[in-house]
Amino acid sequence: MNKTIGIFGGGQLGRMMAQAALPLNIQCCFYEADTHCPAAQLGAVIANQAPDALQQFIASADVFSLEFENTPLADVDQLIQTQTLYPPRQALATAQNRLLEKALFDELAIPVAPYRAVHCEADLEQAVAELGLPLVLKTATGGYDGKGQFVLRERADIQAAWQALGPAQHLVAEAFVDFSRELSIIAVRGQDGELKTWPLAENHHHHGILSHSIVPAPDSAELQLVAQDYICRLLDRLDYVGVLTLELFVTEQGLLANEMAPRVHNSGHWSIEGAICSQFENHIRAVAGLPLGSTAMVAPTVMVNIIGQYPDSAQVLALDGAHLHLYNKTERAGRKLGHITLLPKDSAQLSTLCQKLAIILPEPLALHAEIDIQHGAVE
Amino acid sequence: MNKTIGIFGGGQLGRMMAQAALPLNIQCCFYEADTHCPAAQLGAVIANQAPDALQQFIASADVFSLEFENTPLADVDQLIQTQTLYPPRQALATAQNRLLEKALFDELAIPVAPYRAVHCEADLEQAVAELGLPLVLKTATGGYDGKGQFVLRERADIQAAWQALGPAQHLVAEAFVDFSRELSIIAVRGQDGELKTWPLAENHHHHGILSHSIVPAPDSAELQLVAQDYICRLLDRLDYVGVLTLELFVTEQGLLANEMAPRVHNSGHWSIEGAICSQFENHIRAVAGLPLGSTAMVAPTVMVNIIGQYPDSAQVLALDGAHLHLYNKTERAGRKLGHITLLPKDSAQLSTLCQKLAIILPEPLALHAEIDIQHGAVE
């Protein structure tokens, strides 16, 4: 009766997947370098350095998934000879390569910022000429949390940009997007093709790291329909099973897709308390072949990341209705250590809570900014 | 920074405590006979048969609690020589003995059914004479889920009752309570004396086993205030820390206390999804010395027990908004294997869900009965 899901990676996303899986009598195990990883308290960790580790992992579970979008395709290829992986290999391969990803967006008529593939310095010069400045040069593979990117502001930056990123060989130059807001939509697809989407999150970053997400994104009723349409095209085209995230920019030309993540996402952590069924539980349900749960919102929610240093737990828990999620990681600058979920009664309470949190958190990121929510905006 | 809580017992209550503790970076360990107990997936189990097991357990955590109200007082006495136990020893000792418990209720002016201590057959005859029939004879210690009880319906039952329970020596005879409903109130007290209570649950039993709980108990606005008053008297008098449950009867003479349980309780499982902070998280917060979370209700909730045999998970999860909690136990008649939480939109949806559940569950217990909820009854 019990099922085991093998997960590539054992960080906080795997930890929260396993937390959602246990009440369903589903056990997770993890393929991960660090046997003291955040997920280790919830399931066996198979250290991925040993020579036969991958074979051992492949033999250890009934079905497989991932929490790490840079899971090596070579490992996946070995796994899928005998086992099933959700999401499917193609989704992973596409998400790992910005050029493949943009080609897929183009194929599905999901708008993206104008871009050019760049394989040599001359390509970059041509891209600057055609797309104008500023321009963002990105490696096609390996980028994460703002790494592997270079913003060109004038023609003189071309050489420096090429020197910084050229060795990666496969690059993409993107026209600078003049966006007013960053949103993300998260959706889940079951093995029978059932689709469900959560409300749009509005994401606020600080130096490339997610600071906080507001759900539902203010004034997003129409955007929600557009974003749902885009992500459902992706899910169906990829014959996807599990949770997929699509990051979007709000521009004067409408929503533009930034990138997709073939996994549960930091901007979906609000759903543990804020939605009837969380992204973690629905991902587990999909991978295990169970019916999906409702993605409806319980109440407007704000999720705040804990970065670099832990706050005093007692101070956080003294905030009315605050939920604390710590990942059992050691402190390090820029590292995601946990998150806090707020389900404020109204904008006034949210404002108070955020002011207090900005004092309590050692690294308040973008929390000083004005935050507002809209009750009753999305059903 | 991380804390470990040592818990006497490792059943489903310990399992759900540990599930609530992990996001707070609090680890639990368990003192328990069965190393494959439900809590074993979430923390170390110290097998309690080994000669030095108790010393090992005492050395294994920063602070201690329990999920098992029959935790031996001898073990507790050894523990509290060097360590702290929440709830305090006196609460445990009182709850383990119906005579001490009723004396405490009397002292605090919490009404109970008329009763007599019974130490010999003559005491029982006198109790029948004074309290009338029917009469319930119970062992003062060791009773659980309807065991250790004998209902006397006529004078001729006296001998049989005495033969059945007399060897226990310490007995209590209680006047039969003509009650319309069974309710329970759950409350939590912090180390600083902070008190919080959840809404009353209306509990429906089947052959002495809890079938389902409805929260808030219908028509309970006034009863809530009375029940809160009673349980707060107990918490303060016992200098209690953690979660306490008080079972109550609704009678024509008002609320009568049945018994207290010095622990999280089956009738509080609804609070995982139905309250802002669950009984499990607040118990952990109290034991760890953290501020308590809000016990306010998210929405009216019904909790249904899974007894004896597992249902098909997929059928349960296909129910709109249903949450499934399985305890990783093997099937056995009468055994609590899991529970299902429903947060219906209205009475009509609740009725539909319960009709479906009565078909899906191999042992539907009292679920065939009319179930109703009241939205907006308790804030």
TrEMBL record, chains A, B:
Subunit structure and binding partners: Homodimer.
Functional description taken from the UniProt entry: Catalyzes the ATP-dependent conversion of 5-aminoimidazole ribonucleotide (AIR) and HCO(3)(-) to N5-carboxyaminoimidazole ribonucleotide (N5-CAIR).
Ranges of residues in domain ATP-grasp: 102-288
Keyword check for Ligase: yes
SUPFAM superfamilies hit by this protein: Glutathione synthetase ATP-binding domain-like, PreATP-grasp domain, Rudiment single hybrid motif
GO CC term, one of those recorded: cytosol
Pathway: Purine metabolism; IMP biosynthesis via de novo pathway; 5-amino-1-(5-phospho-D-ribosyl)imidazole-4-carboxylate from 5-amino-1-(5-phospho-D-ribosyl)imidazole (N5-CAIR route): step 1/2
PROSITE patterns: ATP_GRASP (PS50975)
UniProt-recorded name of the protein: N5-carboxyaminoimidazole ribonucleotide synthase
InterPro entries: ATP-grasp, ATP-grasp_carboxylate-amine, ATP_grasp_subdomain_1, PreATP-grasp_dom_sf, PurK, PurK_C, PurT/PurK_preATP-grasp, Rudment_hybrid_motif
Gene Ontology molecular function: any one: metal ion binding
Sorted UniProt keywords: ATP-binding, Ligase, Nucleotide-binding, Purine biosynthesis
A biological-process GO annotation: 'de novo' IMP biosynthetic process
Sequence similarity: Belongs to the PurK/PurT family.
EC number annotated for this UniProt entry: 6.3.4.18
Keyword Oxidoreductase: no
Catalytic activity: 5-amino-1-(5-phospho-beta-D-ribosyl)imidazole + hydrogencarbonate + ATP = 5-carboxyamino-1-(5-phospho-D-ribosyl)imidazole + ADP + phosphate + 2 H(+)
Positions of ATP binding: 98, 138, 143-149, 174-177, 182, 205, 258-259
